[in-house]
Amino acid sequence: MNKREIIAYFDARAPEWDARMVRSDSKIAFILDAAGVRPGVSVLDVACGTGVLFGDYLARDAARVTGVDISPEMARIAVSKLRDPRVEVLCGDVEELAFPRRYDCCVVYNAFPHFAHPARLLARLAACLAPGGRLTVAHGMSLAALHRHHAGAARGVSRPMPEPERLAALMPPCLAVDVAVSDAEKYVVSARLR
Ligand SMILES: C[S@@+](CC[C@H](N)C(=O)[O-])C[C@H]1O[C@@H](n2cnc3c(N)ncnc32)[C@H](O)[C@@H]1O
Predict the structure, then answer these.
(1) Measuring from atom 2 of ligand 1, which residue has the nearest CA?
(2) What start-end ranges are recorded for coiled-coil regions in this protein (predicted)?
(3) What are the φ and ψ backbone dihedral angles of 152, each rounded to 5 degrees?
(4) 121 alpha carbon to ligand 1 midpoint, in Å?
(5) pLDDT, averaged across the chain
(6) What is the dotted CATH code of the domain comprising 3-193?
(7) Can you tell me the distance from the alpha carbon of 153 to that of 140, in angstroms, rounded to the nearest whole number?
(8) Rounded distance between C-alpha atoms, residue 79 and residue 77, angstroms
(9) Which of 17, 69, 76 to mutate to test the pocket of ligand 1 (most atoms within 8 A of CB)?
């Protein structure tokens, strides 16, 4: 997996991204409940794409949302939709950016397979958490559907998504996993800073 190829892959798909999005409010509600998104929190949306969750964070009265994405086209579309001063978008590699603050909720939604070094990413994100903060890795589809997707068009820009137990085992010791769900419609692993 090479980052230039990841950028090219998502830049090419950005214009159609929102039109192809299949949304389920109930799945997103489950994921954001697990992620601890509630009034007053700050959120780091890792690999935010076009910002598909920004409205959901704001609907829950998040105090601050930072979205970060490595694809300039995805980030450009996310920026073009910004209407609220609580939201900012950074275009860059989440593995290298210096974040301006610590966050109550760090959410990696539909993006984890695109990181070549999962344990390294989790450790880096854990270091971005405020005291009592939560790190959540989630997908709005089953593990089987994810495997099919990543064996197809996205094969060159992703690695297999681990089972929840395996992902939990990759979390750094400072995090306590208290949600691990993998069912026919979603995948959610969420951990709290000890
Ligand atoms: C499948 S898309 C998901 C986007 C969004 N979270 C959603 O659900 O619509 C994966 C995203 O990960 C981003 N990405 C991949 N590697 C990244 C990295 N190292 N840093 C930041 N973003 C990255 C891609 O540019 C892409 O927008």
Answers:
(1) 111
(2) none
(3) -100, -125
(4) 13
(5) 96
(6) 3.40.50.150
(7) 18
(8) 5
(9) 69
